[in-house]
């Protein structure tokens, strides 16, 4: 009879790391519940799918580059009365992403625009969307550097792989004409 370690190594070779890392626990659970072979196979598949989904979310969260994790559940709507929880929740069907529409938060510093944008972005990552959070200045600098290297189109294409671009601090600092042009190129791509 093969050992758990031998079977786990085979699952690792198949890149079923979720199963491999939990195999002993899964086998014990199957034995304790006297599962049929088919039920056990389904449990293994479900476990692997859940593990891959968790890893995908973790990777997309890292790629999103949120400066700090801000959750919508932490936002105090009593303090900010110009927007309601209902308005924000209406965005959480993500139809604006699917329809390639813009959502713009406008207001003075310190009213929660970044918190709301980050919270929506985090929910989008959890829903399976690829999100990039950046400041306008960082984006402009990135595009200008790519342009100097002759790689503007490549940089724009790499940004376009994201489903949602959260552009923070737009309008706080003046942009030169080149920066505005490059952002225009990105928006029109």
Architecture blueprint of SSEs:
Layout: H1 4-13, H2 17-32, H3 37-64, H4 85-91, H5 95-98, H6 113-126, E1 131-135, H7 136-148, H8 152-160, E2 164-168, H9 177-188
Helix pairs in contact: 1-2, 2-3, 3-6, 7-8, 7-9
Word description of this protein:
Helix 2 (17-32) runs antiparallel to helix 3 (37-64). This protein starts with a helix and ends with a helix. It has 2 domains: 4-63, no CATH class; 72-188, 3-Layer(aba) Sandwich (Rossmann fold). By secondary structure, the protein is mainly alpha-helical. It has a two-stranded parallel sheet. The model has no long low-confidence stretch (mean pLDDT 93). It is built from 9 helices and 2 strands; from the N terminus they run ααααααβααβα.
In short:
The chain is mainly alpha-helical. It has 9 helices and 2 strands; from the N terminus they run ααααααβααβα. A two-stranded parallel sheet has the order 1-2.
The count of DSSP E runs of length 2 or more, i.e. the number of strands, is: 2
> Which architecture of the largest domain does the CATH hierarchy give at level 2?
3-Layer(aba) Sandwich
CATH superfamily of the largest domain: P-loop containing nucleotide triphosphate hydrolases
CATH class of the largest domain: Alpha Beta
Helix tally?
Answer: 9
């Amino acid at each position: 009879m093969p050992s758990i370690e031998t079977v786990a190594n085979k699952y690792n070779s198949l890149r079923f790391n979720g199963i491999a890392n939990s195999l002993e626990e899964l086998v014990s659970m199957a034995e304790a519940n006297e599962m049929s072979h088919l039920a056990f196979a389904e449990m293994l598949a479900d476990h692997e799918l859940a593990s891959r989904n968790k890893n995908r979310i973790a990777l997309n969260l890292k790629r999103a580059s949120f400066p700090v994790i801000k959750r919508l559940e932490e936002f105090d709507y009593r303090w900010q009365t110009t927007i309601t929880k209902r308005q924000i929740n209406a965005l959480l069907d993500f139809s604006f992403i699917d329809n390639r529409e813009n959502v713009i938060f406008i207001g003075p510093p310190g009213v929660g625009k970044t918190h709301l944008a980050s919270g929506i972005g985090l929910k989008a990552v959890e829903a399976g969307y690829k999100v990039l959070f950046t400041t306008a200045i960082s984006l402009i600098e990135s595009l200008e550097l790519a342009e100097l290297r002759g790689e503007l189109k490549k940089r724009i294409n790499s940004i376009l792989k994201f489903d949602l671009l959260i552009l923070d601090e737009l309008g706080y600092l003046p942009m030169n004409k080149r920066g505005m042009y490059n952002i225009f190129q990105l928006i029109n791509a």
